[in-house]
Each structure stands twice: as C-alpha cells, then as structure tokens.
Amino acid sequence: MTDKDAPTPPESDSASTAQATADKPEPREAWDYPRHWIADVLAADGGVVHLRPIVPDDAERLVEFHSKLSERTRYMRYFGPTPTLPPREVARMTTVDHKQRVAIVAMLGGEMIGMGIYEGLASEGKPESAEVAFVIADEHQGRGLGPILLEHLAGAAAENGFTRFEAEVLSENPNMVAVFRDAGYQLSRSFDGSTVHVEFTIDPTEALLSVRNARERASEARSVANLLRPASVAVIGASTDPKKVGNALLANIIAGGFTGPVFPVNGPARVEEEEGEDPRRRGHGSVASMSPRQRRVRPRPPSVRGIRAYETVRDIPDPVDLAVVAVPAPQVDDVLDDCLVKGVRTLVVVSSGFGDSGEQEGLENERRLVAQVREHGMRLVGPNALGVANNDPEIALNATLAPHIPAAGRVGFFCQSGALGIAILDTAARRQIGLSTFVSAGNRADVSGNDVLQYWDSDASTDVILLYLESFGNPRKFSRISRRVSRSKPIIAVKSGKGAMSPVRKARAAANFDDEIARMMLEQAGVIQVETIPELFDCAALFAYQPLPRGPRVRIIGNSSVLGSLAADTARSGGLEVVDTVDLGAGATEEQFEDAVSAAMRDPGVDSIVVVFVPPVAVDADWHARALMAAANIPDADGAKPIVTTFLAVDGIPPGLTKPGPNGLPERGSIPSYASPERAATSLARAWQYAKWRMRPESEIHRPEGTDPEAARMFVREAMAATDGHVDGARTAERQLSAVDSAKLLRWYGIGVVPFREVTTMHEASAAARELGFPVAVKATSSKWRGRLDREGARLDLPDATAVVNAFAELRELTGDEVLHVQKMAPKGVGTVIRVRDDQSFGSVISFGLSGRTFELLGDHGYRAIPLAELDARELIDEPRSSPLLAGYRGEEPADKEALVDLLLRISTLVDDIPEVREVLCDPILASVDGASVLNAQIRVGPVPDRRDTGPRRLN
Asked: Which pLDDT belongs to residue 470?
C-alpha cells in the first residue's frame, strides 16, 4: 500500500537501485527501500498507525516532531536538553542508505508521531551489530509503539545481515529498558555511571514470538472491541425515507435498544428542480445552472425518526466511536474526510459499488478507502457489509440491515456475504441459537475473520464460534489463531462457501480450493468442518447447549427401530461406537423413556445418548419432554453426557426441552432436537471428533537440534543476489538451486542427502565411485528421466568401476544428459516423498506420501500447515491411505517412522525460518528399518510473495 504522505522519489533516483554483490550488498540510495517495509500496525489501544522508512523529504516533519516533544522526552532520547535538531543531524537522520543506517517513522493523519533508527557498528569492529534508538511523541506514549518500531527495525536489520542490537539508555530511564525486555528479547546489561548499555540478539526466538503474538492478540481484540462495544453511534445517510438503507439501519439500532446516543447524519439541504422541469431539455446539464425560479431547496429534515439530525458528522457535539455509512459509493470519500476530522474510531460501510462491482475503478476506490481509513488510525468493516451486532445488554447494538437478530446467547458468528447473512440470522433465530455478537465483513477490505477470532478468544460472553468462510485472507495466521482458540472454544466453519460467492468475489479470492487440503488444514487447527448452513446450526445447537462427549461410546434409545438403525449407521460412519440400541416400541410411555435415559446416564460404559421420539399417534409430548429433562438431570449420573434427540422431528430447542436462563432464553442444559436421526448422529460424531482433538496433548513447536539458520539464511541471500530483476527495490526472480546447493542448504538443518557426485565424463564417474565406495548407482538428472517407474533413468547396485563406466555410457546415450549423478547405494526401503509448496488458499503447505506416479495420480498424500509440531508430523505420516506400507505390510520390516518425523520437522523448520525458500522436494526418501535416506532434493528460492504472518506484526 502506498502512503499518500510518503514522498514520491524524484525521477533521477527511480532507477538508482544498486545491484548487490553476493557477499556484501552495496548501500541503497535514500529513496530505494524495500516496499514491504511499509506497514499498517495496531497500537495497544486498537488504533492503527502507519509505518514506513524515512526519506529526505521528511526533514520538515522531523523538525516539527522534535519541536513538539517535551523537554524530558528530548532529554531521555538525546541525553541532553536539545531544544532543536541541528540541520546536519536532521540531514543525517533523514538521508539513510537503508542498509547500514535504517530509520522508520510512525505516521498518523500525515503527522509524524514516532521514529526509530539503527546504525551499523562496523566502524567499531562489530559488523553484525547495530545501535538502535527510538522516540515516541508524548501524547502517544503508552500505546505500545516502541516495541512495534523495535520489531520492524529488527526485521529490517535481519534482512541486512545484522544479528545483534545495542542501545545506550540513561539510568533514570528504566521504561526504555523495559521496552526491550517486554518485547521478549534476552538482554545483557552493563552499567557505566549514568548510562546502561544493553545488548541482545534479534533472531526470532520462541519466547520472542510468544510475546509478539500475545501483543498482537491483545491489540487486535481491542480494535474489534472498539467496533462491537461503542459508546456512541452515528448513522451517516440516515434518510427519512423508510425505503432507504440509512433509514433501516437507524430504525434497527433504535429498535435494538442501543444503550448509547445515536446521531443521524443526513447531509446538507438538497437543491432540486421544479416538478415538470427538465434542465437538460433547455440545454443545461446541471441543477446549478438553473435560474432561481427554476429550482427549489428541499430543507434538510431537522430530525429522523424523532432524533435530531446533523448535516455532517463534524457537527455532532459529542464524541463518535462508530460510524455506520450508508451513502452511495461516490460520496464515501467526503464522508470519510468528515469522520477523520471528527476522530471516529471505526467505520462500518454498508455501501456497495467498490471491489464487489468487479470493475478496476471499484477495486482502486476500495484500496484507497482502506489506505485513508488506516492512515488516520481507524478500522473498517466492509464495504458492502451487512453490519455488526452485539447482544450484550450493556451495549444492545443492532447496526445491521437485518430487522430482527437472534436473541442473546453465547455464540459468535462471522460471515462475509450480506444477503446470506440475513438468511443465516433468520435461521439462527428460528432454531433458537442465541448470539453474543455478529459481524458481516462484506468485501473484508480491512477487518477480517482473524481479527474477530482474536476478540472472541478472550470474550467471556462467547463460548462457540461460527464462521462462514468464502476465502482465507491470511491462511497462515488463521491456522495459528484457530489452533489456539480451538483449545478452549469450538470453531465451526462452512469450509468453502464458493457456491454462494459472486463471480467477482470468487475471482478476487483467487482461491481454487482443494477440498482435501482444506479439510486437512482445518482439521489440523481443530476446526469443526461442515458442508452446509443447516449442518452449521446442527453443530451449533449441540455445542452451545450440551457438554462434549468424553468418549466415542453412544447408546441409542427410541420408539422406532428403523429410525434407531439409521442413527446407529450414521454414528458408526462418523467414528462413534454404538454400544447398543434400545427399542422401546412404538407405544413407549414417558416413564419408559425416563427409565431408559436415566440408566444410560448412570452407565459408565456410555459417553453420549441419542433419543429418537416420533410417536405413531398423537400423544401429550409435554410429558415425554419433562421425562427426558428429568432423566438428563438425575443427581447420580456418571458425569455430564451430551444428549441429542429427534423430538417430534423438530429443528431447534423445543419448549419442553428448554432449560430457561434468567432472561427466559435457552441456556446450557437445554436439549437440541433435529429433524432426522442422521443429522442428530452426525452432529454428535463431530462433537466427538472435536473432543478427541482437544484431548490430544498440546504439542509445542520445538526447534530440532543441529541447525544453523544464520548460515542457511546467508546462503539463500547469496543465491538470490545472483538473480536478476528488481521491482520497488526488491528482487523478483526465483532460482532453482542445483542438486549440490540443495544438499548443502539441507545440511545446515541436519538433513543429509545420500552422498553423490556430479560427473560429466567416464573418468569422473569411475573416480567418484571409488571415492564414495561400492556399490553405487549412476542416475540421469533431467526431470523426464528422474523417478520413472521402469527405472530406465538409473543403474543400481553397481559393484565395480567397469560397471560404472558402462552405466555412464548407456545413460549418456539414452538420456542425452550432460551431467549424471554417481550416488552411494542406500538401504532398501519404501519410497516416500516430502514436499513443501505454496498453495493459493493456505500459504506454505507441507505434504507427505509414498513416492511414485501412481500415488501422485491417486492424490494419496497428507497435508499440513507450516510450522509443524511433533504430533502434526506423526499424524501427517499416517494420513495417506497407503501409509500401512510403512508399518510392516505382509511381514516386511516396519520403517523407522521416528526418522521420518525428524525429517518432516527439520524441513518445516527450514521453511519457517527462511520464507524465501519457496519450494522443497525430497523425492525419493527411502524409509527402512535403518532410517530415512534422502536420495534427491530440489529447492527453489525467491522473494516472498506474501509476507503476512512471517515477520513483524502488521495488518493485512
């Protein structure tokens, strides 16, 4: 994103990018900085701040920024009064090379509010160290901007080859030392009279990442809290016409009982032509060209729905937290200017005509809108949003286009599509799924499902989370967040939603979802996946009102043997164990039902219960309902057990099965009913799968021993420096590493490729074989011959030099390859393959399967998101249907799975450490009782196309 306050480089500098050498990149020019250093970030209070590298045109801004600092702040930063910055110092701080000296400024509304800088210490004999310092405007101190600037400076320094930061801090400034410590860095300190010398490495350790993620979680949750818990709301475009969107929004906010002030904004008085007059007929194209008698002024209504109206949001005398915008797209810019001046914290734009239009102009307008909103510290929901709602009685906000929203409950819901959102809210209300909060993000230009997940994670009012996902904006981050949230709160997601997407939105998502990859990625994160909206609410009813099953054992009780059999079959196919099916007969009384369910509740061999109640003749269902509720709540039950039922084929919570809360609405303990036994059993099976996931030990991500990430990172930088192509100061060309370089890079992560030599002559082949030791293999290197099932591209188990020379000659003639490989023979085993690649929908994905075109054709591979925990790696190995071949199939010796686990973790760590590693292919890997032998490795490196969630905190 381009910051409109960032000066544009002069023409003379636009082509001045210096080509970096492989060992020591040359300094950049003052205007030539990597554009990915530009970032929007969230402060601790949820407000947005814009970061970018400094440029010479910032001199006046820097002088003004310095002049507004308090005397104490200037003293703490410069170790003296320093009322003004000398011109020479201003020039030094604003004219940097973005290599040895980097400065990043924090901007808000075009004003500089913070600055951080580092300077290399090569002149002091410390080529890998840099001195860092930063200062924040007094009125913005305490917003967490210091650690954010430090993160981004450390990211830039790491890219430039630095590994350590140093800082000099006055002894009387403990807050500055606390900034370094609280950011997660391990400090070494020394004291020299009035100053403290601080040093720390800037590599992203586990502790550092943990602190960074915790700060991100808090700031994003706070920004969504600003949206969902506003103290005041302005409705911009609040028309008196009940057919207009603005009128409907205002009406819904009022009817919902919002506890704060509501301010209608309906614009200035409108000039209209007289009835029957058409100025175009008289050759005039605008109302402004009419004479006074040809036009009339329609006064602006002084009130809308009995509430005083204002011409603009600036005219409102009180603060405005949330602005809901319902004006035509061309007018949004003017509205935005007013909101920026007023200091509105969050915008909800329901207006369409932006990216949803499918036109380039609409997309550009949407990007500009987001840039302007963030530039002034705000967040945006939409455009083309349905709105937001919060059922907390202290807020009571219905800022949506839905006239009715479900009653208060403990379920949070997020979706994108506005039209679909109305239908979903209606369905939730009919099925008595109470909502805590609701967000419809529309085009999802700014606030996304990830932001709302961060809020729900710590929201005490939300126990269950529903998502309707049309695409994954930041899949890596979604996986990270949902994996954490799912540990305490179930997340139920319609995994695709492509069928409900418009062609335009589908094209924008650029997500050709592979359903199998989607399933495995969400499963890894503990997300409960469903296919349809009805299934979404089937699961929601169970999770919202019943406990999780503690095991797979289910008892089915009913008065229909046929329906009971349907429930049993569905339960078994979903992974449940049907311990027995109790058929009470068509004429079963309420006492028989109560006794049967009570017995199941007391039985330690039963974990969950399905009750089928469909009487063949009219009966008093209330008595049966009371009997079921009484059995579900017996005091001597063997612990809490979930109960689902097909009570008169009702969908939702029947009145007789409702456990009313203080407000009369269903609360936990109510029993959900389903229209069919299959749906009831399916929901119960999904609950067990989720419960089983939560029972797994929480496997942390650990770094394998014997890795050297710094050496590997430097090697990749050197490889990329040899490529051509620059865009905005960043290299764009990708490079396929040679087999030798690929093996070298893997060695820094403790992965050894079976020793081989590249040879071009018979003499070299013979010498290589003697060096490696017999037996050896001679292999073709071109892609069309490598890995063929007929093995024509390789000669194996060659016992002596004569056999090697003959094999070399045969393969040279057969394949035409100029370079062949001579490789030491590895222990025989099952051929497997590990691959890391970019997926359009999910980011970097690691896969595992058996090697060969047959398994590739069948798609028999498992997939997981990176980084892998140890448990993820074990599950990945067992994911393919052909994985039993590794366990000793038909009497063969089992392969060493521990070696495969270790290999997966090392490759995952490599790609996680160095995102410039774009693809890794290890194929084949021979898995045997002796270990895992990598025979061939191919690695592709290149610029990171999307740095989201791979570096310092930033908004998407």
From this structure: 78
* Residue 519 near residue 529 (C-beta atoms within 8 A): yes
Distance CA 577, CA 606 (A): 10
Rounded CA separation 622/160 (Å): 74
CB 423 within 8 A of CB 397: no
How many residues can be counted in the chain?
Answer: 956
Among 648, 650, 643, 681, CA closest to 566: 681
Spatial distance between the Cα atoms of 356 and 362, rounded to a whole number of angstroms: 7
728 close to 35: Cβ distance less than 8 angstroms: yes
Q: Is 727 helix (H, G, I), strand (E, B) or coil?
A: strand
What is the sign, positive or negative, of the torsion defined by CA atoms of 204, 208, 213, 218? Answer: negative
H or E, element range at 735:
strand 735-736
Provide the mean pLDDT of the chain: 88
**Cβ atoms of 200 and 164 closer than 8 Å:** yes
Task: Compute the distance between CA of residue 536 and CA of residue 542 in angstroms, rounded to an integer.
Answer: 10
In this predicted structure, which of 153-162, 267-276, 402-411 has the lowest mean pLDDT? 267-276
- 10 Å CB burial of residue 168 (0-12, 13-18, 19+) is middle
Tokens standing for 417?
């599509």
Q: Is the pLDDT of residue 3 over 90?
A: no
How far CA 479 is from CA of 50, 209, 241, 482, 510, in Å, comes to 26, 16, 45, 5, 19
At residue 257, what are phi and psi to the nearest 5 degrees? 80, 35
DSSP assignment of 754-794 = PPEEEESSHHHHHHHHHHH-SSEEEE--STTTTT-TT-TTE
Q: State yes or no: pLDDT of 23 exceeds 50.
A: no
DSSP string, 319-344: --SEEEE-S-GGGHHHHHHHHHHHT-
Rounded Cα–Cα distance for residues 784 and 793 (Å) = 9
| Alpha-carbon gap, residue 781 to 778, rounded angstroms | 10
- Listing DSSP states for 812-832 in one string gives HHHH--S-EEEEEPPPP-EEE
Assigned token pair, 86 = 């000398």
Pair of tokens at residue 152: 């981004």
Long-range contacts of 17-21 (CB under 8 A, 24+ apart): 17/726, 17/729, 20/721, 21/721
Q: Output the pTM of the full model.
A: 0.86
- 148-165 tens-digit pLDDT: 999 999 999 988 989 999
Percent of the chain with pLDDT over 70: 89
Residue 162 DSSP symbol: -
pLDDT at 950: 67
Q: How far apart are CA 682 and CA 686, in angstroms?
A: 6
Of 823, 831, 850, 833, nearest in space to 754 by CA: 823
Burial string for 257-278 (b: 16+ CB within 10 Å, else e) reads ebebebbbbbbeeeeebeeeee
Sign of the four-CA dihedral 340, 34, 177, 955:
positive
Angle of the 677-695 helix axis to the 561-573 helix axis, nearest 10: 30
Answer yes or no: are the C-beta atoms of 63 and 85 closer than 8 Å.
yes
Q: How far apart are CA 152 and CA 34, in angstroms?
A: 12
- At 551-610, the pLDDT tens digits run 999 999 999 999 999 999 999 999 999 999 999 998 899 999 999 999 999 999 999 999
Which residue bears the tokens 């709105």? Answer: 387
Cβ atoms of 564 and 677 within 8 Å: the answer is yes
Tokens of 539: 């699961």
**pLDDT for the residue numbered 731:** 45
Kindly tell me if the per-residue pLDDT of 645 is higher than 90: yes
**Which residue in 258, 261, 485, 223 sits closest to 390, CA to CA?**
258
DSSP state letters, 95-107: S--SSSEEEEEEE
pLDDT value of position 466:
97
Please tell me the distance from the alpha carbon of residue 437 to that of residue 575, in angstroms, as a whole number: 33
